[in-house]
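Re: that chain you flagged

S.,

Sorry for the slow reply, it's been a week of failed gels. I finally had a moment to sit down with the sequence you sent. For the record, here it is as I used it:
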Amino acid sequence: MSSADEKPARSFTVCREDEPLPPHLRGAVAAIGNFDGVHRGHRVLVQAVRESAAEGGRPALILTFEPHPRAYFAPHLPLFRLTGPGAKEVVFRHLGLDGLVVRRFDAELAGTGARDFVRRLLRDDLGLSGVVIGHDFHFGRGREGNPALLAELCREEGILCRVIPPFALPAEADPVSSSAIRAALAGGAVERANALLGYRWFVQGAVRHGDKRGRTLGYSTANIALSDCDLAHGIYAVRARLPGGGVRPGVASYGRRPTFDDGAPLLEVNLFDFAGDLYGQVLDVEFVAFIRGEERFASAEALIARMDVDAAEARARLAADRTPSMLEGGR
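Prediction finished late last night. Pasting the structure tokens below so you have them in one place:
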């Protein structure tokens, strides 16, 4: 995230599920969407909502929905989410907003017509004075609503509506998108994904017990299972935020451990110069650089020799990294 995006800390209110909007946030201007990744294209909407809110002396909000509509309509299909609810909240807290509203995406909302979406949710429930949406925003039963219809319905209700065109990086034709970032991560192109995001991609997860093999190899790891993650299997330079605060550098493996068991994909994080019990604790792990793909080694000794090289490479890549971090400042 660039310094132009990041704003000084301010009061930030989160309203989850059906929690009513507090009085000081009534009359807000809200950017609406799924915001998976909260990437650089999304932050054009955030900038627009801040500007529109400031013009009218109103609060600036984000309105999003959980679960992701794709997960609701096709729960049997895997969905590689760039940012789960907790990670999304971390990013939004950096962006100079007044609050985040998360509404439940359920059968009732899925069956709500476009006009009722505006009247019941935007006008009556949230009392919004304005909304900001992307050019491809759809809403209402069967996705019947599009930006033009939303602008018309909002005008009838006296609600400002701004539609933001697609955003592309300089000298690039294709707009920034969550799909492009997923594809970059699936190919191990972490630096490319981070450039599209504007910050280092990170995951959150609880540390679980493993087979303790890392201790015998001289590389103790914090093991985290990632759900429906299409990240390329391999070795990464990472940083992790500890539960009690502080960010530590490290090297991580994501994959199936082909030298040993070829099991289910697992993120194994070795934090440099750290000794402590992290079992059951939640770590935030950001990915700085891809070092190499996952390999099968002929022996544990060969693996250890390569791990020594990987750790040295990770230290060098981390020392050279200047991309802004989302892990500073606590959860």
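What I noticed first: The mean pLDDT is 92.

Talk soon,
D.
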